[in-house]
């Protein structure tokens, strides 16, 4: 599970929890799901505008809980910026960009 800060650049409709785009992070292209829209924030100041928004649209910035469909190698933006940036793509165009704020790592299974 990743907590991401995302800015919606170009999406024709509204984005709700359950949205399933493709995440491009460094060389990986992985299907993801926006599990929960945590907070809507001001894209300039970073101040919290709304808790648990129902939807976000073009021009909005938000903190989102995101679940990748398969394991991926990422870091938080503060620890290692190149692995902490990403683009969200859908309908053959870039819908949003953002940074990874928090990563919940799964333990490796022992053989």
TrEMBL record:
Limits of the GTP-eEF1A C-terminal domain: 4-101
Organism: Hemiselmis andersenii (Cryptophyte alga)
Residue ranges crossing the lipid bilayer per the database entry: none
Stated name of the protein: GTP-eEF1A C-terminal domain-containing protein
SUPFAM superfamilies: EF-Tu/eEF-1alpha/eIF2-gamma C-terminal domain
Any one Gene Ontology molecular-function term assigned to this protein's record: GTP binding
Protein family (similarity comment): Belongs to the TRAFAC class translation factor GTPase superfamily. Classic translation factor GTPase family. EF-Tu/EF-1A subfamily.
Superkingdom as given in the UniProt entry: Eukaryota
UniProt xrefs under Pfam families: GTP-eEF1A_C
Keyword vocabulary terms for this entry: Elongation factor, GTP-binding, Nucleotide-binding, Protein biosynthesis
